[in-house]
Specification:
Elements lengths: L5 H10 L37 E10 L2 E11 L3 E6 L6 H8 L9 E9 L2 E2 L7 H7 E4 L10 H11 L5 H14 L3 H4 L12 H14 L4 E5 L7 H14 L4 E5 L3 H7 L2 E6 L2 E7 H6 L4 H7 L5
Parallel strand pairs: 3-8, 3-9, 6-7, 7-8
Antiparallel strand pairs: 1-2, 1-4, 4-5, 9-10
Length: 299
């Protein structure tokens, strides 16, 4: 998988809540003003009763190098879906295609379909900020915006038209409390984010993302750079949120996947090998390759 530069990731993190021009140039109808369901007709993809994200024969290339091969999946609107597999197997590429952060690469190319609430998002021209406000992003390293702790959470709220100081203060406190951060920062809200630990910064980024009320959270190795205590806090936060929003969590750690997953997806060499409900997936895998990976035969 290609690696995004720090500057690109910072711009992408900001774009989740700030309108920005699209980087794609295909001529097609723009996104709807909101991602409301349209009649998509029958589909051969693996679907569930409530699946806001559906990929159908999705393939992704970086130039001539194919990273994802013909993946058809659905991701439910609640619960945690973990995406596991060896390094370089397409996990992060799949995740970054769902909100089109992969567009930051000039040579990226897609085939197939990705639909959010029935709306096709590939090959369309505008309103990526609408898409990205629906899909919060939590990266391996936290990237707080270059402003105060308070303004990091308030930024997206202001863009949504909230200007009253009292309402902003109430909402900022609300989301910092959700992320178990309020009592750690309540007396330094106007201070810089650089004063926070890495674990605190990650929780701040989660509070910033939740403040715009996303439908799903995309977590790309969201705890791999954190200490065990911070990792536990982030996992517990996601477990609390999964009853109302969906979480798609890329992880290299099988122990973590077993702890948090309601469903699991196994990718190998860019291809979908197996997916299913967590108990059956981990205890009784259908595919030999899955069983070998879970047993530690390769990593």
């Amino acid at each position: 998988m290609k690696t995004l530069s720090q500057g690109t990731i910072e711009r992408s993190a900001e774009s989740l809540i700030k309108p920005r021009p699209t980087v794609r140039t295909e001529t097609a109808a723009p996104f709807a003003s909101s991602l409301e369901t349209e009649d998509a007709g029958a589909s051969p993809v693996r679907t569930s009763a409530a699946a806001p994200i559906v990929t159908d024969h999705l393939s992704v290339w970086y130039g001539r190098q194919q990273a994802v091969f013909d993946i058809s999946l659905s991701f439910p609107s609640t619960g945690i879906t973990t995406v596991i597999g060896p390094s370089g197997c397409g996990k992060s590429t799949l995740l970054r295609t769902l909100n089109r952060i992969a567009d930051e690469y000039e040579d990226v190319r897609y085939e197939g379909s990705v639909k959010i609430n029935g709306i096709e998002i590939l090959g369309r021209k505008g309103n990526l900020e609408i898409l990205r406000s629906k899909l919060g992003l939590l990266l391996q390293r936290p990237y707080p915006l270059p402003m105060s702790i308070f303004d990091n959470v308030a930024y997206g709220l202001r863009l949504q038209g909230i200007r009253a100081r009292s309402e902003l203060a109430d909402r900022v406190e609300h989301y910092l409390r959700i992320c178990h951060l309020w009592h750690e920062v309540e007396y330094k809200l106007r201070g810089p984010t650089s004063a926070l630990s890495v674990g605190q910064q990650q929780r701040l980024c989660l509070a910033r993302g939740l403040a715009v009320e996303p439908e799903m959270i995309l977590a790309d190795e969201a705890t791999s750079a954190l200490d065990p205590i911070s990792t536990k806090i982030i996992e517990e936060l996601m477990m609390e949120q999964k009853e109302r929003i969906g979480v798609i969590w890329v992880t290299h750690t099988l122990r973590q996947a077993r702890r948090i997953a309601d469903r699991a997806v196994f990718l190998y060499m860019g291809k979908l090998v197996e997916w299913g409900e967590a108990p059956d997936f981990f205890d009784s895998p259908r595919e030999v390759l899955t069983a070998e990976y879970l047993a530690g035969a390769f990593s």
